[in-house]
Amino acid sequence: MQFKSMVVSNVEVSPGYFRMRMTAPKELEKTLPGQFLMLKVSESIDPLLRRPFGFFDVGVLPAEYAGGADQTYAEILFKVVGKGTKMLSTLHHGDLVDLLAPLGKSFNPGPAGEEKLLVGGGIGLAPLYYLAKELVAKGEKVRLFAGGRNRDDILCITEFERLGVETYVSTDDGTLGESGLVTEVLDRHLAPGKRIFACGPTPMLRAVAIMAERHQVPCQVSMEAYMACGVGACLGCVLPGAAHTEETPDYRCVCKDGPVFDSFELKWS
Amino acid sequence: MHKPDMTVELAGIKLRNPVMTASGTFGYGAEFAAHLDLESIGALVTKGLSLRPKAGNPTPRIVETPGGMLNAIGLQNVGIDAFITEKLPYLAKVDTPVIANLYGNTLEEYGEVASRLDALSGVAGVEVNISCPNVKQGGIVFGTDPAAAQEVVRLVRRNTKKPMIVKLSPNVTDVVAMAKACADAGADALSLINTLTGMAIDLDRRRPVLANVTGGLSGPAIKPVALRMVWQVARAVKLPLIGIGGIMNGRDALEFMLAGASAVQVGTASFLDPGAAQRIAAEMEQYLVDHKIASVASLIGALEV
Ligand SMILES: Cc1cc2nc3c(=O)[nH]c(=O)nc-3n(C[C@H](O)[C@H](O)[C@H](O)COP(=O)(O)OP(=O)(O)OC[C@H]3O[C@@H](n4cnc5c(N)ncnc54)[C@H](O)[C@@H]3O)c2cc1C
Ligand SMILES: Cc1cc2nc3c(=O)[nH]c(=O)nc-3n(C[C@H](O)[C@H](O)[C@H](O)COP(=O)(O)O)c2cc1C
Ligand code: FES
């Protein structure tokens, strides 16, 4: 659905990273972890296209704190990388944005009782918090592996810890947690009977997908692509599927078939 | 005042209002059903259809540029067979004329697709894409050479009795010559413009942004070019015209009608606002009410120069 939403808060949680809360209609409470929204940053034609963001959280502020009626909200966690996100970072309480949401396919939580391994690289942590919240609510055992270049890229870890998620942090430069790649830490925890949910830069996802296959652990990845429509109409956001070759092309739409894919659905080489 | 008369007629097709969706920006219609009332728009134009399914170009395929976007989708589509079995049954239930946009990789394919579509009662008319700048052996050959364009249009004409719209490329020196060539070859209407070929460069990586290197520019950035071309063609050719290019609101659409268009198509705008086509039709009507204009058709070509 398309709707106008009011910015409730927009906080710089780490240098260059913002967490923004927006009001949302009640229907958004049905949003599933892994789905995304398309946000029109300004009414002008610059930037022209909507920008896609995962749901960091969706919740309800109860009536007694929301001034008389329950208020549904959605949160995004975003990194300033260009014009649109720069403008987004300047919004504050009371500003209006136009949203299209919820879009795309969600993570499949998998059977109960499995250990759920969440793997996030940098801003890739964004959709994992909402997922962690849902998994914890179901009573699942959840571990989070968070990686980044340095400590500034490790976002909202305490939020995960407050849920009771066991967290493992690694940074390239060792300024927080272990020094090295998040995949090295993950590798030590892989065993059958677990399930991976990963989001982050493509090289990280590739490494995770290959590792998951080696350990026979089911793995879902949340992918990114340039998007225009977000509803499967422009065919701008495709990625090659596993069987893709130049002679027998097989493209998957990130906005409609994804953004969450089983890692074996995609071509990694 | 009475409700203004928003209907227009286009090569025998009656439209409830002049707003159509542009090929490639509205999927096969169903994608947008949740966002607007498909029965509130004038006509629906499908993604470009080819004889066989087409996978399209490598990625990245799109990038935003100031006031517009470049795309190099590569005419990805489900192919005529899947269109008939999977897409058309849904569209047949919608009370809005469906225009099938078609193209061929070869001259013969144009003829074959046209004759397949001719047999379908759910298709009100065809729009022939002679101008796609993305596919190497495709559109560019036909759409930029009057003789080649004429050959395609004649062949499609022989293969269909349905109203035939020919969609013109702006990537030509003389759009009027192209328009005349297509008119002579039997077009019932002309739509213009398709995207303008452009490119974007990533300075730091020293690479083109699009995998295809070049792509088609659409959106508000191309509106002045499109208006100029519609105006030029309207003065030279008697056929009804469909104005396309950067239409974002009702005022934009009405400007195209003043320039000589009988109808308009909304493209990129549907990406930012999936309800754009319906909204634009409503905005046009409101303009007529506000300015006490009884019929939208009275504005066609009413530009005062
Ligand atoms: C399904 C999905 C979910 C996403 N979730 C989040 C999220 O939760 N938090 C977040 O911060 N970002 C997320 N992104 C990426 C975000 O959409 C882009 O960073 C944003 O669109 C950039 O806009 P801009 O105008 O600031 O940058 P632009 O000026 O458009 O571009 C600046 C730089 O960002 C890169 N870029 C632009 N768009 C994308 C894109 N779609 N994917 C990858 N790189 C891009 C460009 O290559 C360029 O180098 C998501 C993307 C997708 C497809
Ligand atoms: C993503 C995309 C895909 C398109 N695909 C087609 C197509 O298949 N056939 C066609 O004739 N035109 C195609 N077009 C061109 C549009 O129909 C239209 O002519 C152009 O975008 C200009 O209008 P706009 O500025 O309103 O978008 C496409 C445009 C875009 C942006
Ligand atoms: S963004 Fe348009 S098809 Fe995915």
Automatic annotation (TrEMBL), chain A:
The record's remark on the cofactor is: Binds 1 [2Fe-2S] cluster per subunit.
Task: State where FAD binds.
Answer: 84-85
In this protein, which residues make up the domain named FAD-binding FR-type?
A: 1-109
Question: GO biological process annotations for this chain's record?
Answer: 'de novo' UMP biosynthetic process
* The entry's keywords: 2Fe-2S, Electron transport, FAD, Flavoprotein, Iron, Iron-sulfur, Metal-binding, Pyrimidine biosynthesis, Transport
Q: Name one Pfam family in it.
A: DHODB_Fe-S_bind
Gene Ontology molecular function: 2 iron, 2 sulfur cluster binding; electron transfer activity; flavin adenine dinucleotide binding; metal ion binding; oxidoreductase activity
Check the UniProt entry and state the signal peptide residues, or none: none
Residues bound to [2Fe-2S] cluster are: 229, 234, 237, 255
Q: In which pathway does it act?
A: Pyrimidine metabolism; UMP biosynthesis via de novo pathway; orotate from (S)-dihydroorotate (NAD(+) route): step 1/1
Q: Which CDD domains match?
A: DHOD_e_trans
Cofactors needed by this protein, per the record, are: [2Fe-2S] cluster; FAD
**Assembly and interaction partners:** Heterotetramer of 2 PyrK and 2 PyrD type B subunits.
The family line of this record is: Belongs to the PyrK family.
- What is this protein for, i.e. what is its function? Responsible for channeling the electrons from the oxidation of dihydroorotate from the FMN redox center in the PyrD type B subunit to the ultimate electron acceptor NAD(+).
Q: What is this protein called?
A: Dihydroorotate dehydrogenase B (NAD(+)), electron transfer subunit
Automatic annotation (TrEMBL), chain B:
Keyword Ribonucleoprotein included in the entry's annotation = no
Record-level Gene Ontology MF annotations: dihydroorotate dehydrogenase activity
- Which SUPFAM superfamilies does the annotation name? FMN-linked oxidoreductases
Q: Where does substrate bind?
A: 47, 71-75, 129, 194-195
Q: What is its main location?
A: cytoplasm
The residues listed in the UniProt record as binding FMN, with positions renumbered to this chain, are 23, 47-48, 101, 129, 167, 193, 219, 245-246, 267-268
- What taxonomic lineage is listed for the species of origin? Bacteria, Pseudomonadati, Thermodesulfobacteriota, Desulfuromonadia, Geobacterales
Listed name of the protein: Dihydroorotate dehydrogenase
Query: What subunit structure does UniProt give?
Result: Heterotetramer of 2 PyrK and 2 PyrD type B subunits.
Instruction: Quote the subcellular location field of this record.
Output: Cytoplasm
Q: Which UniProt keywords apply?
A: Cytoplasm, Flavoprotein, FMN, NAD, Oxidoreductase, Pyrimidine biosynthesis
PROSITE patterns reported for this sequence: DHODEHASE_1 (PS00911), DHODEHASE_2 (PS00912)
Q: Which enzyme class, named as a word? A: oxidoreductase
Q: What cofactor does this one take?
A: FMN
Name the chemical reaction catalysed here.
(S)-dihydroorotate + A = orotate + AH2
Task: Give the protein's function.
Answer: Catalyzes the conversion of dihydroorotate to orotate.
Q: Which gene encodes it?
A: pyrD
Q: How many cofactor units bind, and how? A: Binds 1 FMN per subunit.
